[in-house]
């Protein structure tokens, strides 16, 4: 997976890091999560026991946090580091805002 532009159009210098191993790991995790969500939908349709559905939701939330942690780690070690080294310390506020949103 090559580098692609960040969706934030006002800053064309920001890039997505390119580490095929990590990208594949994230995609595998997201595919698994997608399957879990479909499973919960089936459980609701089949009127499964509420506690069983809630446990599956908790499992998905944990899996999503795992993906977020992996992505945040890669972001900090590559994108953020690169921006700080290039003199853009504003990225620190951006990362803090993202972390605070994740903690809600």
Keywords:
mainly alpha, single chain, Methane Monooxygenase Hydroxylase, Chain G, domain 1, 104 residues
What does this structure look like?
The N terminus is likely disordered. This protein has one domain: Up-down Bundle (Methane Monooxygenase Hydroxylase, Chain G, domain 1). About 0% of the residues are buried. Helix 2 packs antiparallel against helix 3. It contains three helices and no strands. The protein is mainly alpha-helical and about 100 residues long.
Concise synopsis of the structure shown:
With 104 residues, the chain is an all-alpha fold. Helices cover 71% and strands 0% of the residues.
Q: What is the distance, rounded to the nearest whole angstrom, between the alpha carbons of the first and last residues? A: 31 Å
How many separate structural domains? 1
Query: Strand percentage, roughly?
Result: under 5%
CATH structural fold name: Methane Monooxygenase Hydroxylase, Chain G, domain 1
Count of DSSP helices?
Answer: 3
The CATH H-level superfamily is Metal-sensitive repressor, helix protomer
Helix content: over 70%
CATH C-level class is: Mainly Alpha
CATH architecture: Up-down Bundle
Given the C-alpha coordinates, what overall shape results? elongated
**Biggest pleated-sheet summary:** none
